Amino acid sequence: MKNTVIRYGIYGAITISILFLLALTLGKDLSYFAQEVIGYTSMVVSLLFVFFGIKHYRDHENDGFVSFGKALLIGILISLFAALAFGIIDLIYILYINPDFAAEYYGHMVEQMKTTLPEEEFKIKLAELEAEKELFSSPVMNFLLMSFTVLIIGFIISLISGLILQRKSTTNN
């Protein structure tokens, strides 16, 4: 199991890193919404290795069987690789590549809210955004948020993959 987790976890980490870098270079002129869609798509694509890792373990290391619990564990461990890679890459991005990202994004969100919300609702949302701005200015919080986002998606993919791929042994112990 360990070799499968490491191999497919590294595949997921490499994939999410490459997709992040591609989005960074090819998508810099896209809207924030389009970049967000690309980001979430990159997460899901890189986490497809969860399914393939569980399937590999079941078919090649465990005689064609895997319990739901074992599949879920394998999936979460594989997801952890991609989650950590994404958190680290995002940290590098906000600390070194684009240190003004938070301010730019904040400015964009304020302008968008100004044009779409009534005055009273704008004031409420602006206060909420101010509180979030403080939270997201911390590199540690940014790392945790990005990693946790990938891990949650990985958990969901692990659940689905575990349900699809589980196959219990017919022998009674």
UniProtKB/TrEMBL annotation:
Q: Write down a Pfam family by its short name.
A: DUF4199
Q: Which residues cross the membrane?
A: 5-26, 32-52, 72-96, 143-165
User: Which InterPro entries does its entry note?
Assistant: DUF4199 (IPR025250)
Instruction: Keyword check for Hydrolase, yes or no.
Output: no
Query: Which keywords, in A-to-Z order, does the entry hold?
Result: Membrane, Transmembrane, Transmembrane helix
Is NAD one of the keywords? no
Please give the name of this protein: DUF4199 domain-containing protein
